[in-house]
């Protein structure tokens, strides 16, 4: 298999750190460039991260001594890369400008940021669900005036627990969804040491999350029409998003109403048999199976099940009929793996396998 040289823009933050751990020994991708803010530039990666390293494993030895570059010095960052991952902490308008600058430099960008999620010609990819949206890259390249450069983004971490479980059920005509997500502190880039206010507490507000939960699935379920992706008009989604005292893992409770109510057996079969393009292509980070239903009444549990399939799979449980809707169930995903860096790496693998990085 061909190998690609890759960079991380925003390498010192929590998601950037997760990218480092995933790419250190990747079979396709060679990590050749690290970039961050001006205050980190010129330091080794170990020096730049300092005491903020939040992963459970040490900084990979071959990455520790790499010198961090200034993310705004695009020529230097891109000297020896085929594409970059982006996970910067900046204002949205600054992120949009930075990512487009990299793309216009003929370097594809696979972004963990939200800035371009609603740009009509930027695909927001959940690889198992909407791989056909990759084709909008052709229109984006025309707009940007590039031959190779483009931007692709991954969706918000909170929707990655339940949207995959709903997707195989769309054939039954989903009309309404009510969802509550119970989100880990790593989703805010925090640990228990840096977020003491979460201990023995639940915070019932996460800025912007409910809007993302209600809007982003509609783009994923949208259609490619000419030079843009047109979001779906339905189903109607109502979301609550709360922060809970958990290190990693976003759990969701879902209530769903159908046009044609399926049987319980039909729903279980839809989950068990579903696979997407990553599974068919046998991509390095593709979970097999993608989704798993757990029969125990008290599963999935965040602490027990967030690492299913290396943190890239979705676990589902507690399927039962609902008095207001048709059915209700519980879903779980790992927010910094499937929901953030891991999902972006899988997206890059799919883009590379289909020739978009060449």
Automatic annotation (TrEMBL):
<dbReference type="InterPro" id="IPR012280">
    <property type="entry name" value="Semialdhyde_DH_dimer_dom"/>
</dbReference>
<feature type="active site" description="Acyl-thioester intermediate">
    <location>
        <position position="157"/>
    </location>
</feature>
<dbReference type="GO" id="GO:0009086">
    <property type="term" value="P:methionine biosynthetic process"/>
</dbReference>
<dbReference type="GO" id="GO:0051287">
    <property type="term" value="F:NAD binding"/>
</dbReference>
<dbReference type="GO" id="GO:0050661">
    <property type="term" value="F:NADP binding"/>
</dbReference>
<dbReference type="Pfam" id="PF01118">
    <property type="entry name" value="Semialdhyde_dh"/>
</dbReference>
<dbReference type="GO" id="GO:0046983">
    <property type="term" value="F:protein dimerization activity"/>
</dbReference>
<feature type="active site" description="Proton acceptor">
    <location>
        <position position="250"/>
    </location>
</feature>
<dbReference type="InterPro" id="IPR000534">
    <property type="entry name" value="Semialdehyde_DH_NAD-bd"/>
</dbReference>
<keyword id="KW-0521">NADP</keyword>
<feature type="domain" description="Semialdehyde dehydrogenase NAD-binding">
    <location>
        <begin position="5"/>
        <end position="137"/>
    </location>
</feature>
<protein>
    <submittedName>
        <fullName>Aspartate-semialdehyde dehydrogenase</fullName>
        <ecNumber>1.2.1.11</ecNumber>
    </submittedName>
</protein>
<dbReference type="InterPro" id="IPR036291">
    <property type="entry name" value="NAD(P)-bd_dom_sf"/>
</dbReference>
<dbReference type="Pfam" id="PF02774">
    <property type="entry name" value="Semialdhyde_dhC"/>
</dbReference>
<keyword id="KW-0560">Oxidoreductase</keyword>
<dbReference type="GO" id="GO:0004073">
    <property type="term" value="F:aspartate-semialdehyde dehydrogenase activity"/>
</dbReference>
<dbReference type="InterPro" id="IPR005676">
    <property type="entry name" value="Asp_semi-ald_DH_pep-lack"/>
</dbReference>
<comment type="similarity">
    <text>Belongs to the aspartate-semialdehyde dehydrogenase family.</text>
</comment>
<dbReference type="InterPro" id="IPR051823">
    <property type="entry name" value="ASADH-related"/>
</dbReference>
<dbReference type="GO" id="GO:0009088">
    <property type="term" value="P:threonine biosynthetic process"/>
</dbReference>
